[in-house]
Amino acid sequence: MTTPLSTDTKTDYENFSVTCPSCKFWNIFNRVTDLKTTTLITFREVMCEECKTIFAINGDNASEKWSYLLFECYDYLQSKRYMQCVLNTAQALEAFFYLAIKKKLLFDPRINQVIGNSEFNELSKKLYENIENNTCPDLYKIFKRLYYETINLDTKEKIIDVIKNIKKLGKDFDETITHVWKLRCRVGRKEAYRPTKEEAEKCIAFARKAIMKFAIDFKISTPIQFWPQGSLK
Ligand SMILES: [Zn+2]
What we know:
Layout: E1 9-11, E2 15-19, E3 26-30, E4 44-47, E5 54-57, H1 65-78, H2 82-111, H3 117-131, H4 136-148, H5 156-164, H6 175-188, H7 197-217
Antiparallel strand pairs: 1-2, 2-3, 4-5
Helix pairs in contact: 1-2, 2-3, 2-4, 2-6, 2-7
The structure holds zinc ion.
């Protein structure tokens, strides 16, 4: 007997949710806790949490992190969770700028054989460590300097140097990014500010417009060979 397959699937950054083909119970499988993986689910047997039937799930969405975070905002808008909208929007921007920075400093140099595999792994770790505590406005500034200025990244040594001194690329005070970031700080910190629907919508619209523009202008996405192992088969 073949394993029944669920056809009704909803995926987001954290969860893989499906209807059980047997009892129609809506199962929410958390990727980390229940499925124990953060890679793309192409086929996986699971057990219904209600009737214990074994069935299979597939049809995952190979999206970039920023896209999950941003498009989840529309669910939050529906359920009037405007605070979460603002937090997700700022996080989507951060994820996008981090991806763009990685493209410039790691993916492109690796593809063009300026750095090898072991340097790629080592520098990925370094870049993450050096940028870990940087917030959205910092990442935006680094992104802008890397993409709009002529920073020479022709050799391994130059890349190592830029990554080492990445914090020096500084902060930026772009009005629109700052607007999202200020609102995010009000929501996410002590004040726990409750934004209005209009404020949340404005935030999402801005982030979406900015990300789409940069993504298209600079072809920013994760090249296939850099997706987590086993995620694309
Ligand atoms: Zn069931």
